Amino acid sequence: MANDPGLHALPITVEFGGRELTISPAVVETDRGLVLFDVGPADSGAVDALETHLRSLEYDLADIWLVVLTHHDGDHAGALATLLDRTDAVVAAHREEVPYVTGDRAPIKSSGDRYPPVAVDIALSAGVRIPTLAGPMDVLETPGHTPGHISLYFPESALLVAGDALVADREAPLSGPKPRFTADMDRALESVAELGTLEIERTLCYHGGYVEQGAERIREIAGAARE
Q1: Which PANTHER family does the record cross-reference, listed alphabetically (predicted)?
Q2: Most CB atoms closer than 10 Å: which of 24, 42, 192, 203?
């Protein structure tokens, strides 16, 4: 589907965990430049791929002034150090995610290796609102996949940038978090139920991209999990 005015999905295909993976970082335009949601895995060419996307939008990496991490998993944050070598961007993550990004704690799902740690400049929490050219962007706490997972909500366009709180795949256009990759499934499903109370018409998933489904489908996911 077409991107929303001011917000652009940047789907890229990378190598991660020994397999080929298609992911959907995104940027939203602001008066200060671009806000980037997640980056991609380390040593995967993700930053070069993002740069190619941005040039097609008549932007460059230097136009990114803020990186918002939905959470600390390696396929989202691993390439952040590479990006910061090429930009002066500020980094923001939920306060519960900060120690995993900075290296004070090992990533929850790590088998020993980890991506290069980076400093986090802004610790986010629920209630933070950032003005963008796509309308106000609200930070939502959606823990469960990781302790401080966040999603981003654009109420004026009823759009949810879900991170990994929801996924899209061939079996079901919009699905709940995958148990195999979720630290606390009960809490993750509580987060899904909370998302179902919002006015959401479309969802952008990091895994699966844009989906023309929202609150109704999200409530179905939450209800099925209770049965």
Answers
A1: METALLO-BETA-LACTAMASE DOMAIN-CONTAINING, METALLO-BETA-LACTAMASE SUPERFAMILY PROTEIN
A2: 203
